[in-house]
Amino acid sequence: MNKDQFNKALFSLLVAAVGFSLIFGGIFFHFWGQMAITALVLTSLAFFFRNDDIRRQLAISKEQLPYIIALGLLSGVFLYFIFMIGNDLANHFISFGKAGIGGIYGFGNNMDPRMIAFLLLFIIGPGEEIFWRGYLQKTFVRHYGRLGVLFGVLAYAGVHLASGNPMLLLAAFSAGLFWALLYHYYKNLWVNIISHAFWDLIAFVVFPFS
């Protein structure tokens, strides 16, 4: 692939790392607000560097829509149940599991749940999938082949290191791996967007784990 495009992807990843470091290292006004701003910045970079490609990925026909919505919702529910099992295991077998999971929710528990739901559904979930899967993972796969899927997962999990929370890092790796494989297999960005946004809604607003 074009080396210039790969370098732009690395620059975008650096911006993501800085953005997440600011989120976890010094929350200036509100966790979810900063998450939304970071998602908007990263989405803008994806469109700026690969505008035509991102737009092609977001183009769907009416015939595809019911299938895409169903697959996205079902995959989001499936991932939630995987995390439910993981949550029970962590609480029973990992000494810092319960505290770590509680710490994840502690980042942004002082905002109106309706506002959190709005940000997750319409900005954070879609923005993260456009950037991490539709742009970064696709760029890495073009450069490294199938190994690029793993590199994309490691990048997604890696930016969460700034949180200092091992449970959040594990959760980011697990969810990132799931969405990376979902995107690699179906190659449909809308499936990922719906899956991610719906999972976010369930896990952080409707039925949180802590």
Outline the structure in words.
The structure is a single chain. The protein is mainly alpha-helical and 210 residues long. It has one domain. 82% of the residues lie in helices and 0% in strands. The protein has helices at residues 3-25, 31-58, 65-93, 97-106, 113-144, 147-158, 166-186, 189-206. Helix 1 packs antiparallel against helix 5, helix 5 (113-144) runs antiparallel to helix 8 and helix 6 packs antiparallel against helix 7 (166-186). The chain is globular, with a radius of gyration of 17 Å. 39% of the residues are buried.
Strands, helices and their partners?
Blueprint lengths: L2 H23 L5 H28 L6 H29 L3 H10 L6 H32 L2 H12 L7 H21 L2 H18 L4
Instruction: Tell me how many strands there are.
Output: 0
Radius of gyration: 17 Å
Provide the β-strand percentage band.
under 5%
The largest sheet, given as strand count, sense and whether it forms a barrel, is:
none
Overall SS class: mainly alpha
Order of helices and strands: HHHHHHHH
- Tally of separate domains: 1
Individual helix count: 8
Give the averaged pLDDT, no decimals: 93
- Distance separating the two termini: 44 Å
Weakly predicted, low-confidence segments: none
Query: Which word captures the global form?
Result: globular
Helicity level: over 70%
